[in-house]
Amino acid sequence: MCSLLPEEIILNILSRLPVKSLLRFRCVCKSWFKLFSSSDPNFVKIHLNHAIQEKNFSVMFCRVTLYSIDCDNDDDDAVEIDYPFKSSRGYVKILGSCNGLLCVTTDTVNSIICIWNPSTKEYKLISKPPFEINRNIDIAYGFGYDFKIEDYKLVSIARSGSVDVASKAKVYTLGSNSWRNVETSFPFNSLNWEASGVLVNGVLHWKRSNGIESNAPVVIVSFDIADERFQEMTLPKCLHYNSDLVVCAVGGSLCIVANSHKDLNVDVWVMKDYGMLESWTKLFTISQQSGIHYLRPIQSFKNGEILFEAELSGSLKSALVSYDPKHERATRILKVQSILRWWDTVTYVGSLVSLNSGLKWSRSKKRKQ
């Protein structure tokens, strides 16, 4: 590439640009076309790391169809976006988000599962997990990245009926384009089936109750994507169980939000050192005077504020709210609102990650064998 600037400086500048700009610049020269077409995995990783570190994220949520909001833009209107199977009937459900890739599906009988990069428009339709389907089956999902093999995986956990027995689990790997069985001895009947697995530190997490009583202890079921192992994780002993607990991730840390039924206060807990149970720490409490309740953190901003999905006081509507923990106040309520209490809401960063990356790894591995 011809320039008065050294090549490393040019690459540094380009790695900080949004994907939309890079895709336009592919026509500048052959080397840039190759660079921005995911042919250079090092540039793709550098670009992705910059986007994650700078928290250049957008929010995508479902309300029958898919909408996106650019949180770095002062114009915070939600924009309806196209997606691969938009013409099909049924609601859209987001199963997970990782490195700029989203895993989405529909709620129809003949549901479609799709791994999709909204920035490059690349997508891949995948087969449904091969469970024995019956009307009593429930399936929970989680989506993430296996750093050991540099590939993406979708895990599905199925339970059938009301008998508390060990459930079945299967894992789909993008590179092999196939599902495999995974051993598990946990009874998942009381798993939170409405929520997808929360991805932190290469591990997926779901909330699970140990009983049907309202004050029954709650634990977190985790699945290590690389090792493909299920484990249980306990919650802080001082956490009140008469609360609506939400498992989430903020700033790369595992987080628990306790929405109290008694006083409507909201306690936000974080595991500061992942895997260390004694590192559970209460970050702050949002009082009922704030006017927002039943919170679920979505993402943290560079200025320390946190984006929450929240229910507004005196209204049946919920909204996306930017909250300043230091000054204990909501600084911005995004314009998009809904009569629904919860949406399927995730954040994602624009990336050049290709769905062919797993296939390349799979083929090279076979050659080595």
Structure description:
- Helices cover 13% and strands 43% of the residues.
- The protein has 369 residues and is mainly beta.
- It has a single domain (55-348), classed as Neuraminidase, CATH 2.120.10.80.
- InterPro entries: F-box-assoc_dom_typ1 (IPR006527), F-box-assoc_interact_dom (IPR017451), F-box-like_dom_sf (IPR036047), F-box_dom (IPR001810), Gal_Oxase/kelch_b-propeller (IPR011043), SCF_F-box_component (IPR050796).
- It comes from Macleaya cordata (Five-seeded plume-poppy).
- Residues 1-46 form the F-box domain.
Identify low-pLDDT runs: 357-369
In order across it, which strands form the biggest sheet?
3-2-1-24
CATH fold title = Neuraminidase
Which range does the strand content fall in? 35-45%
Strand count, sense and closure of the main sheet? 4 strands, antiparallel
**Structural class per helix/strand content?**
mainly beta
Calculate Rg over CA atoms: 21 Å
What's the tally of helices?
5
Outline type: globular
Question: What's the average pLDDT?
Answer: 79
CATH superfamily: Kelch-type beta propeller
Under the CATH scheme, the architecture is 6 Propeller
Distance between the ends:
37 Å
Number of strands: 24
SSE string, helices as H and strands as E: HHHHEEEEEEEEEEEEEEEEEEEEEEEEH
Tally of individual domains: 1
Work out the helicity level.
10-25%
User: According to CATH, what is the class?
Assistant: Mainly Beta
Protein name: F-box domain
Pfam family, one: FBA_1
Organism: Macleaya cordata
Domain F-box: 1-46
